[in-house]
Each structure stands twice: as structure tokens, then as C-alpha cells.
Design a protein that fits this description.
The chain has about 220 residues and is of the alpha/beta class. The chain is built from seven helices and 13 strands. The strands form three sheets. Strands 3-2-7-11-12-13 form a six-stranded mixed β-sheet, with no helix packed on it.
């Protein structure tokens, strides 16, 4: 069944900063969709299920710190919170942990879930650990090449240090495109508020036509 996702504002994520009040995204199948005014999409697809979200819809984001966050950091299991805390562990603290391939894979799966909770649909940077690559591919995240190491420090928020949304998106949303890789919903009224609040205000992430994250 096709699904229409709509919110108070849709940001295309292009360099012009284009926005559409009352915009919507029709997800017709895995990797296919249409962007436009909600009224037009609803009229053209009366059988579609409708999801109304608070805030705004924007393209999915690229986290430029794939290796640093997934292979250079350990994401503790919630059962380890008393001993290790809840934040990613790196450096000397990571070196002191007995890391196995299985533990790397579990850490990467938790790290990927945290990325999805920040509207991330792709990671940049070369990954080489098989267990990490498997976690990324199973989640459906796209692996992108990066030409240079970003300035850092590594952050789960792809909008950290950005002055415009367009700097962090994978692919701008377009009313002319029939291919739709991913988008996210953020609890913010406009782009300025989104940049101020950061991607941690993500409400939902849709990847390959699937709702892969929804804030509880």
C-alpha cells in the first residue's frame, strides 16, 4: 500500500533552500516515490495511507564520520551502562576493551541505530571490518566515498558545524525524481530552527521506503 508522509513544511535540501509548506512524500514502493503538495498527492492516490508528522520533512543526511564512529568507537550495550556509560568509547578506553568481531558487529548495529535516530541514511569514509560492513548493509545505509577527512570532532549529528542543510544531505528531494532513497522528519518549524536544534530532534527516518526509525 502506498504511504503519504506529510508535515507542516518540506525542505528540498537544495542549494537554493527551497521549501514547500504543506509538502508531502508519497512512498509507492521500495526506493520509489513522489514529492509534492499534500493535496495533489492525496487526490491522485486516494487509497494511500497517510502519516502526519510534526515539524518538517527533509532529505536523509550523510554522516561523514563512518570509520571514526563505527570502527574507531565502541557503542556500549545498555546492560553495560553502569560500567561503561552510554556514550561512544574511543581512544585509550577503547584500547582497554577486549574487542572481538562479534563485539564490533554488535557495537556497529547500535551505532547505526543511533545514526538512524539522527536522520542519517548514508555514511562516508572507508569501512573495512566485515562485521561493521555487515551492520551497515543490513540497515540499508549507503556507504559513500569521502575525498578528505572532515575536521571533526566526530559526531552522531550530521548537522553539527553546518551552516546550511544542503551541506549535509545525501540527495535533495525533487518533485521530478521517481527514485527516492531516504528522508527524515524533524521536530523543527524551519531550516534555521533545525540547524539550531540539530539532527537529534529527528522524529522519524524512512530508508528505502521503510520506516526504520520512529521516536517513541
Amino acid at each position: 500500500m502506498p504511504t503519504i508522509h506529510t508535515a507542516g513544511l518540506l525542505l528540498f535540501g537544495d542549494r537554493q533552500g527551497s521549501a514547500l509548506p504543506g509538502g508531502a512524500v508519497l512512498v509507492a514502493g521500495r526506493g520509489s516515490g513522489t514529492v509534492g503538495p499534500y493535496e495533489e498527492l492525496a487526490q491522485a492516490h486516494p487509497d494511500a495511507r497517510v502519516r502526519r508528522w510534526p515539524g518538517l520533512i527533509a532529505p536523509g543526511l550523510v554522516n561523514p564520520y563512518g570509520p571514526e564512529l563505527l570502527e574507531g568507537a565502541y557503542h556500549p550495550d545498555p546492560r553495560e551502562a553502569g560500567e561503561l556509560g552510554t556514550e561512544p568509547i574511543s581512544g585509550a578506553a577503547l584500547a582497554a576493551l577486549p574487542m572481538t568481531d562479534a563485539r564490533w558487529g554488535a557495537s556497529a548495529r547500535r551505532g547505526v541505530q543511533r545514526m538512524l535516530a539522527h536522520g542519517t541514511v548514508a555514511v562516508a569514509g572507508a569501512l573495512w571490518r566485515p562485521a561493521v560492513l555487515d551492520a551497515v548493509h543490513r540497515a540499508g545505509l549507503r556507504a559513500e566515498e569521502r575525498l578528505e577527512v572532515p575536521p571533526g570532532p566526530p559526531a552522531l549529528d550530521p548537522l553539527a558545524g553546518r551552516s546550511r542543510l544542503a551541506e549535509a544531505v545525501l540527495t535533495p528531494l525533487s518533485p521530478h525524481a521517481g527514485v527516492l532513497f531516504g528522508f527524515a522528519v524533524f521536530d523543527a518549524p524551519d531550516e534555521a530552527a533545525l540547524l539550531e536544534r540539530g539532527a537529534g530532534c529527528c522524529v522519524a527516518t524512512v530508508l528505502g521506503g521503510r520506516l526504520v526509525h520512529r521516536r517513541r
